[in-house]
């Protein structure tokens, strides 16, 4: 399992990211690199800044300082629709679907970025528009099948079970054709069976050429799944290595178990 | 019985117009959570623009329906540009301001538009030329003329088109997504600012259609005609459930029927004390009832907090 990560080609290179909210320094000088094709884990105790880092990467927050190079270009931090265009898609810890749209439509919205039909096209219903629309529906169905919720395609997203909603959110993120898929605690609230099948899904996503960034509380899942893991504590990166070594890192043990036991 | 059917016919005609205007309110509310109180004035600008075109062409010998169509073709782009500008100038800079701020600019825009149009078109009532044959057709004992038939048909077709746009197209999907969760839609690559502009533009196009209809129907146009019409259409949107497109259509038609039947029978019911000049009362009576009994409207859902 502990295969040495070969960061042959860097996909994402975050340098010196800092972010504070009022007086709270949520991130201080966090730098990390994610290689193309990796499953990269980001762990840390509650409040360590994992989600803040995610939000900076995906454009929801702008960073106070630092910059992110993604796939050879500077990432437009603070502009979500441009970050998605550059190839980063994410899911949320608290699922955020379009609750009153069908599962299929949720994924179809994800295709927005990679489709072009204009208002004129919509009015004229010309052949190119109809073909594109048919293609969107087709791809959306394929993605639903890929994550295993195609049977619920026409149900409203809010009527799906919790596990299916998580999968649907992944399908919607994949619809934007990301180079990097960022999953924020995808296993939260899942039972052992669901977690196992989630693990399979993440592995097949990587096998299909998408790099995965994973925030997760379930340490077993992270250690089993990730090629490399970074640990955040109080907004600082205290370790970054292959899972085996991270687990034995005294600083990590201290952060998780508290100074008393270390 | 004849009166009853006649009032139903009149109510449907009036209701079609209310529905078109109500859609403009409800679309903007759905996506921004904002009541665009300047929307009635967009209808007025559409009406006066159409009026000028119609008047200029009325001596040309073109058939009436063609002139009406040309008036519409002129009014629609004017209103679209106006709706786009209003959003840019009055609302976008206040996107993150307290809710009261855009409400006040809406009223400001409304006053400015009225005054500007008064300077250009005068403060007197302007008569709208008759463009359709006024010979009434008989329909189950009631009378309906060509104009009224046109109004109901055009409004129906326009609304069907809007539903297709919103439900079946890429941009419609983006609108619904942005209405549900703008931040999330943005993460999906939807440019929410553009969707908001688009929403204003579409709503304003509907307002232009309604403007021509209402001034042709009453044969009159006036710089302040948008105020009462806007309030009633807003009432219709609230009645149907603001933010809900089908609700705005239903609310518009219902309000038209209520107002028409109410003003038709009020004299009989009150023994002649109140006459049909009390017609405007019904809309606001309905508004009060809805706000007291069912604030979310007929088709509105309980508004849940956004995550």
Distance between the first and last residues' Cα of chain A? 26 Å
Radius of gyration of chain B: 19 Å
Number of strands of chain B: 4
CATH class of the largest domain in chain A: Alpha Beta
Specify the overall morphology of chain B: globular
Q: Number of helical runs of chain B?
A: 11
Would you identify the regions of chain B where 5 or more consecutive residues have pLDDT less than 50? 303-307
Number of contiguous helices of chain A: 10
What can you tell me about this protein's structure?
The complex is a heterodimer of chains A (262) and B (307). Chain A has 262 residues and is α/β, with parallel strands linked by helices. Chain A folds into 2 domains: 1-87 and 180-200 and 213-262, P-loop containing nucleotide triphosphate hydrolases (Rossmann fold), CATH 3.40.50.300; 100-178, no CATH class. Chain A contains 10 helices and 10 strands. The model of chain A is unreliable at 1-7 (pLDDT under 50). By secondary structure, chain B is mainly alpha-helical. In chain B, 73% of the residues lie in helices and 3% in strands. The longest helix of chain B has 31 residues, at 2-32. The chains are: A alpha/beta (262), B mainly alpha (307). Chains A and B meet through helix 2, helix 3, helix 4 and helix 5 of A and helix 6 and helix 7 of B.
Topology:
The complex is a heterodimer of chains A (262) and B (307).
Chain A: E1 10-21, E2 24-35, E3 39-43, H1 50-57, E4 65-70, E5 73-74, H2 80-86, E6 88-90, H3 103-110, H4 119-124, H5 127-147, H6 162-175, E7 180-184, H7 192-207, E8 211-215, H8 219-225, E9 228-233, E10 236-241, H9 243-248, H10 250-257
Parallel strand pairs in A: 3-8, 3-9, 6-7, 7-8
Antiparallel strand pairs in A: 1-2, 1-4, 4-5, 9-10
Helix pairs in contact in A: 3-5, 3-6, 5-6
Chain B: H1 2-32, H2 39-57, H3 64-91, H4 100-121, E1 126-127, E2 137-139, E3 142-144, H5 146-168, H6 170-180, H7 182-187, H8 192-218, E4 220-221, H9 225-240, H10 245-269, H11 279-293
Antiparallel strand pairs in B: 1-4, 2-3
